[in-house]
Amino acid sequence: MTSATHSPSFPAVADSADAVLLGLDPEQREVATTLRGPVCVLAGAGTGKTRAITHRIAYGVRSGQLMPASVLAVTFTNRAAGEMRGRLRGLGAGGVQARTFHSAALRQLQYFWPRAVGGDVPRLLERKVQFVAEAGARCRVRLDRNELRDVTGEIEWAKVTQTVPADYPAAALKAGRETPRDPAEIAQVYGMYEQLKRDRGMIDFEDVLLLTVGILQDRHDIAEQIRTQYQHFVVDEYQDVSPLQQRLLDLWLGERDSLCVVGDASQTIYSFTGATPDHLLNFRTRYPRATVVKLVRDYRSTPQVVHLANGLLNQAGGRVAEHRLELVSQREAGPEPVYAEYPDEPAEAEGVARRIRDLVAAGVPAGEIAVLYRINAQSEVYEQALADAGVPYQLRGAERFFERNEVQKAILALRGAARSGGNDPLLDDVVELGSQVRAVLSSTGWAAQPPAGSGAVRDQWESVAALVRLAEDFARARPGATLADLTVELDERKAAQHAPTVQGVTLASLHAAKGLEWDAVFLVGLTDGMMPITYAKTDEQVEEERRLLYVGVTRARLHLNLSWALSRAPGGRPSRRPSRFLSGLRPGSAARGAGKGPAAEGGARKRGRRGPVLCRVCGRTLTEAGELKLMRCEDCPSDMDEGLYERLREWRAAQSQDQGVPAYCVFTDKTLMAIAEAAPGEPGELSMISGVGGRKLDRYGVDVLAICAGQEPGSQDADDA
């Protein structure tokens, strides 16, 4: 079947309603033809959800069951809304409204304001930062540029969760938010910000939703007019709705239930903005008679990529994990994911750059390759490595490292100190270059310890900290180097990274990569402390980090590379550990279960394997994924029990047929060979075999151990085993 996600092209106009259904798989077809009542589409990554819902709307229009003007399709970005409108036009369903929540609400607010309130609609405030800065000044709360961004984010969160200024401190504490300033100060600034807007007759984007909600609640005649206009609703990315957006949707619907929602709780990665998957997870409770369709056929990624993605979620905990979807790849087999461990960060970046250069040389377009990291501050070393390797790149969702405001400010301070030479009092009694740099940058507000929490302040610190590390590495490589030498080096690095990047490798944070896909994806910096990030303290926060990695994995169509460095700088102490999320998934590692917090992780570390994995026959270091699974070289003699292997294959075939999934979704051939060679006698031995995670152990362990013991597998269904 044609990929449901890779190519969005469709016939110019389908010639009939039935033609709209051509090319849909059975589950997508069920979505498209179920036009009445509440419908909940649980759609995994790469399963063609946009295809399913656009064809649903188009089929309803072309079959005469839906009037185009009566349908409102809502999504979260202008890009997604534009894509949806384009697809609908191509399917002969022009005239359907496809908008973001904000644009739909703004359109209604502008139309009904004169009637509901009177006078002109307040002017829309495009950027809050200037008003927040003025509010802070009036409250005598000094906010630097990055604190302004973070406090603005807190105000946005408060408004989408319908929290008034007086209630903000208690709400932030209850939500476990890492606030950039004292919550009482933020509440004070928030209140003044609201007052400034009122005084000047302005509203912000959150006000658009709040005011529309207020009008629809107070004016039943207006609410009924909207409900007469729009009778059928489709909401994409439903796991990302905020409480305020859900309230608006409820008012649009009234007492009706002609609603189709589409989402995947396992891709909830924006909770810090107020998004919550609760509405998706509670949909069937609210609408007991809802039709629920699961899309699990993955058209984007190879079986190898999908297997890893499923494995990540199989180790998850919490309510969201209970609703995870087991994806089934529809693509031909591809290469196994590549795991790479490096001694330090520069070596990791250089290794990634070499692999990318090889892929480009092999015919993979640079624009179909991405390097994804947890925070934007990680980009600099990859920018440099790719530039050194002659590979073009482009940054998504962030400025170039040397164009970031905090980096420019820091370099300016270093250049000034270099010109002052011995006349700068900051450098009195400071001789070593690294110490000089730290002294100079401390005067600009940088501190040796990172700030608490996440957001712009943390990103700013990480960027300047990267400069400090660069200076330390420069001093180590060139003993006796001066500040003037360092500024020359920085200028040369900046100049070298301004190559054309139109078709370059994408460098992006994992958050910025949501909704995108590439032929080859490199997930880098996968160490505990970065993935999950250090400030993810609670079980819920750690589970969101796991989902963030899952989103990263599912961006890859064919090639997937995962890497980490044992130390920061060359020669550093190798104290880092690979991300706990990869335990039991990467070759040579043992599963650590679903422990989320630091305490759980501490106990699990003792069970993790370290060092090279050696062939159990000849002792050679193993590197290939298939060899690592077997724990021996491919050409070393096997001691596999052939009869046991055949019995396992027969059992797997039966399981595959009963469950309606490909055989490799039960166990791959390599895993069956490893089981037949090890002939485990108890669950602990079986769990140590690569490819047998905790969930598969629970599901198939009893049968497999019985077969290994020469017995018939139990008669229970696999789901009950």
Please provide a written account of the structure.
This protein is α/β, with parallel strands linked by helices. The chain folds into 5 domains: 20-107 and 210-295, P-loop containing nucleotide triphosphate hydrolases (Rossmann fold, 3-Layer(aba) Sandwich); 126-203, Arc Repressor Mutant, subunit A, CATH 1.10.10; 338-398 and 503-582, Rossmann fold, CATH 3.40.50; 401-496, no CATH class; 625-709, DNA polymerase, domain 1 (Orthogonal Bundle). Helices cover 46% and strands 10% of the residues. The protein is built from 29 helices and 16 strands. It has a 6-stranded parallel β-sheet, with helices on both faces. The protein has a 6-stranded parallel β-sheet with strand order 11-16-15-12-14-13, sandwiched between helices. α6 packs across α9 and α15 runs antiparallel to α23 (539-553). The chain is flat and about 85 Å long. Residues 1-12, 496-502, 593-611 and 716-721 have low confidence and may be disordered. Pfam families: HRDC (PF00570), UvrD-helicase (PF00580), UvrD_C (PF13361). Residues 303-558 form the UvrD-like helicase C-terminal domain. Residues 580-602 have a biased composition (Low complexity). InterPro entries: DExx_box_DNA_helicase_dom_sf, DNA_helicase_UvrD-like_C, DNA_helicase_UvrD/REP, HRDC-like_sf, HRDC_dom, HRDC_dom_sf, P-loop_NTPase, UvrD-like_ATP-bd.
